[in-house]
């Protein structure tokens, strides 16, 4: 597969990944190399990754606990301290080997340590391959508020090796499909239709769909790297999805919700709002709801929690001057940003989801 060139980085796929990495490492002559992993990727991915590095380098492994709950400033502080302890300088390199938590957090650590060191992302989850691979968004959560602290700065390169997907639990694979479905909904009806029946996909199909998903995201980010306009499309499903995810993160008595599972709910809710407020048809809304629920079983959201979830919307990063802005759909494959939605319509959306 041909590498995908973004503003300041290049995404390599499968066989090309490690040829590009080895050429880069030999040429760059970094003073030290650090590899950030969580305990899962250290166990399941590290050996395979290291077997692809052809020369001997001074490498230190930095291991964190897995899970969104650890994507915070405290974890960053610990890693910054370890980097300082091991003498990391501005010629050091950080390789982030893991899912979205590792790549988001590791990118932020690299961008801020000594005002910035080089980093490479090696996403090991489907979600990270199609979402974190392009665009340079790095960051951590502030309490239960998603990605509130971060910077936009692209990695030296991204290595998408789909062999890592064989290590993922089914729930984690499904979580990544949410972002792929979103890419079709906001930008490409034909891609959405390919994604609409996951039961028929082969391994080769999945590799191509991952590639096409990265192409869709890269096209948007290339035109609007700092999210002034069309990059906001990528937030479809995320305004309410992030609020739901944040609410469930701080209520341990609730079922665990992965990022993609929360975004799947958000896409149905925001699909309903699109049909009520824009030109998305009732038929399209039914199709969207059916396709998403075929992969993501419905979550019973207590109606008593609607208001508490909605209160978290004030922290959404798209907000400006006190307005809560949504990304909605005119039709499948065409989005509109900066839409203002009434509280009553949001409640109606929750009730629609509950009725499915």
Note the main sheet.
4 strands, parallel
Total helices: the number is 14
- Work out the radius of gyration: 20 Å
In percent, how helical is the residue content? 40-55%
N-C termini distance: 40 Å
Domain count: the total is 2
Sheet/helix structural class: alpha/beta
CATH class of the largest domain: Mainly Alpha
Question: Given the C-alpha coordinates, what overall shape results?
Answer: globular
Q: Enumerate the strands of the largest sheet in spatial order, edge to edge or round the barrel.
A: 4-3-5-6
Q: CATH topology of the largest domain, anyone? A: Dehydroquinate synthase-like, alpha domain
Give the helices and strands as they follow along the chain: EEHEHHEHEHEHEEEHHHHHHHEEH
Give a count of the beta strands, DSSP E runs of length 2 or more: 11
What is the CATH architecture descriptor of the largest domain? Up-down Bundle
- What is the averaged pLDDT score? 94
> What's the name of the CATH homologous superfamily of the largest domain?
Dehydroquinate synthase-like - alpha domain
The percentage of residues in β strands lies in 15-25%
Spans where pLDDT lies below 50 across 5 or more residues: none
What does this structure look like?
- With 356 residues, the protein is α/β, with parallel strands linked by helices.
- It has a 4-stranded parallel sheet.
- The protein has helices spanning 15-28, 39-44, 46-51, 73-85, 100-112, 126-132, 170-187, 189-195, 203-223, 238-249, 259-277, 282-295, 306-311, 343-355; strands spanning 4-5, 10-13, 33-38, 59-64, 93-98, 118-123, 140-142, 145-149, 158-160, 325-331, 334-340.
- It has 2 domains: 4-168, Rossmann fold (3-Layer(aba) Sandwich), CATH 3.40.50.1970; 179-355, Dehydroquinate synthase-like, alpha domain (Up-down Bundle), CATH 1.20.1090.
């Amino acid at each position: 597969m041909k590498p995908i060139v973004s503003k300041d980085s290049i995404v390599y796929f499968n066989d090309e990944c490690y040829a590009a990495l080895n050429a880069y490492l030999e040429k760059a002559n970094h003073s030290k190399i650090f590899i950030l992993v969580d305990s899962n990727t250290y166990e399941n991915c590290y050996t395979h990754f290291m077997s692809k590095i052809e020369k001997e380098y001074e490498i230190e492994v930095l291991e964190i606990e897995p899970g969104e709950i650890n994507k915070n400033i405290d974890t960053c502080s610990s890693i910054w301290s370890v980097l300082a302890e091991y003498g990391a300088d501005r010629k050091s390199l950080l390789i982030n080997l893991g899912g979205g938590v590792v790549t988001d957090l590791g990118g932020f650590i690299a961008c801020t340590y000594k005002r910035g060191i080089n980093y490479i992302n090696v996403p090991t989850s489907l979600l990270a391959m199609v979402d974190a691979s392009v665009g340079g968004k790095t960051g951590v959560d502030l309490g239960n508020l998603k990605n509130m602290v971060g910077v936009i700065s692209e990695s030296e390169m991204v290595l998408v090796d789909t062999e890592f997907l064989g290590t993922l639990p089914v729930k984690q694979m499904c979580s990544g499909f949410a972002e792929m479905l979103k890419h079709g909904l906001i930008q490409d009806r034909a891609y959405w239709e390919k994604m609409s029946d996951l039961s028929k996909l082969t391994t080769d199909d999945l590799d191509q769909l991952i590639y096409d998903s990265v192409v869709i995201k890269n096209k948007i980010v290339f035109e609007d790297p700092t999210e002034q306009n069309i990059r906001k499309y990528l937030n479809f499903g995320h305004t309410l999805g992030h609020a739901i995810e944040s609410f469930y993160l701080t209520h341990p008595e609730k079922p665990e919700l992965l990022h993609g599972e929360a975004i799947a709910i958000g896409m149905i809710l925001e699909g309903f709002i699109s049909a009520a407020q824009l030109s998305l048809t009732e038929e399209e809304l039914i199709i969207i709801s059916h396709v998403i629920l075929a992969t993501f079983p419905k979550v019973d959201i207590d109606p008593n929690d609607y208001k508490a979830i909605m209160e978290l919307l004030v922290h959404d990063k798209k907000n400006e001057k006190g307005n809560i802005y949504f990304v909605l759909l005119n039709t499948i494959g065409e989005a509109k940003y900066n839409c203002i939605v009434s509280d009553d319509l949001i409640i109606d959306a929750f009730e629609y989801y509950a009725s499915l």
